[in-house]
Design goal:
Largest sheet: 8 strands, mixed
Strand order of the largest sheet: 3-2-1-4-5-6-7-8
Number of helices: 12
Low-confidence stretches: none
Distance between the termini: 35 Å
Helix content: 55-70%
Structural class: alpha/beta
Number of strands: 8
Mean pLDDT: 95
Shape: elongated
Strand content: 5-15%
Bound molecules: NADP nicotinamide-adenine-dinucleotide phosphate
Length: 275
């Protein structure tokens, strides 16, 4: 992968994290190109990460093997339609990280015979702990799949989904997921203050507990249900709290919330495809 030239259209938050991750994992900065409409963004990427920069998307596409589309969904149509005929490289791969832009829209804007991987990353990618699901169209080769996976793996874990429709569920689970944990942290913090802890103490305990729970879950083969049972003594404090969550309909509320997010993802894809 080190020999492949990777270009990013849009050099904002997500692209700079990916570039940082790629360089940290050994990819040469001289093999990375970025184009952006914002001269300050380009300048800072050139100074800090020593990558090649241009304000011309067309020029970037002509120069690279992989084009990572890292602009906001609202400008994706404009950007992709403008680069449709920029390159005659039949082996070129396009990787879109934009939320809600379907393979069908991308193929319509870039060309139906173009190799396209659509990804759904999440915000923790900004701190190299992202979770990304990827979907490839039928033009993408195995080598190109490896390439796309390696790019996203620079900022966390990445995995493939077979059906594109699964990306709407992924959006509801890991895409929006960080906010669910923040909501729980917020609610726990409020309750901890009511129980007499200071904000500083409560926040640190809650953050470290979230990290610890995630670490145990990641390192264990047990299901969440088994993990929960193992930390719950009959008649103890945890059981009291869990019973209270259950009485309040916690599980069905979570299900409702994720269904609502999934449905909104489907709706948004339709809206963005029509723009
Ligand atoms: N941030 C996340 O955690 C996250 C998570 C999942 C998915 N994503 C997806 O990642 C993509 C990028 O998000 P982001 O947060 O990195 O956005 P961002 O920080 O706004 O970066 C986008 C960059 O693209 C530039 N741009 C705008 N129009 C352009 C054009 N025509 N040609 C070239 N560059 C152009 C923008 O310049 P200006 O600032 O001057 O407009 C900006 O520097 C989005 O599609 C988003 O859905 C992000």
């Amino acid at each position: 992968m080190n020999t492949k030239k990777i270009g990013f259209i849009g050099g904002g938050n997500m692209a700079s994290s990916l570039i940082n991750g790629l360089i940290t994992s050994g990819h040469s900065a001289s093999q990375i190109w970025v184009s952006d409409t914002n001269p300050d963004t380009l300048q800072s990427l050139a100074e800090n990460l020593k990558v090649n920069i241009t304000d011309n998307n067309d020029e970037l596409v002509k120069n690279v093997d992989v084009v990572v589309l890292a602009v906001k969904p609202q400008v994706m149509r404009l950007v992709t339609e403008n680069i449709q005929n920029s390159s005659d490289n039949k082996e070129q791969l396009f990787v879109s990280i934009a939320a809600g832009i379907s393979q069908a829209s991308l193929a319509e804007w870039l060309g139906s015979d173009v190799a396209i991987v659509r990804c759904m990353p999440n915000t923790p990618a900004l701190v190299m702990t992202g979770a990304t699901a990827l979907h490839a169209n039928s033009v993408v080769s195995n080598e190109q799949k490896d390439l796309a996976e390696n790019i996203l793996r620079a900022v966390g874990i990445s995995l493939w989904v077979e059906k594109e429709s699964e990306l709407d569920a992924v959006t509801a689970v890991s895409g929006s997921g960080p906010a669910y944990y923040f909501l729980l942290m917020e609610a726990m913090e409020e309750a901890a203050l009511q129980l007499g802890l200071s904000e500083k103490t409560a926040r640190l305990l809650i953050q470290q507990t979230a990290l610890g729970a995630a670490k145990i879950a990641l390192e264990s083969d047990d299901t969440p249900s088994e993990l929960k049972r193992k930390v719950t003594s009959p008649g103890g404090t945890t059981e009291q709290a869990l019973n209270t969550f259950n009485d309040g309909g916690f599980t069905s509320l979570v299900s409702k919330a994720l269904h609502a997010a999934r449905d909104r993802s489907i709706e948004m894809s339709k809206e963005l495809g029509e723009k």
